[in-house]
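Deliverable D4.2, example record:
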Amino acid sequence: MFRKSLVLGLVAMATFAFAIECNVDGVHGFGVAGTEDRHGEFRLAAKRVTCGDRSQIDGHFVFRTVNRDRRAAIEITMVRLGRLGVGEDTAEWTGHGTMVVRTPQGVRRTTGAIQGRAHDAGEGDDPDYLGFTFTPERGEPYAFRGPVVRGNIEVFHRTFSR
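Output generated by the structure prediction step:
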């Protein structure tokens, strides 16, 4: 009985000794951002999980807007997150994505790079902020920047053991 208790105690101590602390840093949000004359819907989720000396990133970003003057709908989707940087209240990311433009004349699909920035204003009266640039392989870049007028962006930092 004593030997069994001793072995179980040593196993429990070894489990705690070899527990790995993991950190998760990221950003997520959804809503509508922009000004009175230019706005769009967005969804954003990106995170970095670091356990010991291993790190992995994952994420997605989708933005949709309609330009009524040009009768065009634009959708930008990040298909692969390339880099993620997370500060105290700001996250910046880059990735590969697509832009789909729908007009009465047809649909045009373009691939390119996305570089974005999201700011979490916290609980105060200041709004959260979203900005990004889609740079196609050919053609003019598409840039968008504006406050979040409906919805929320949260930049987060969490720790857990496994």
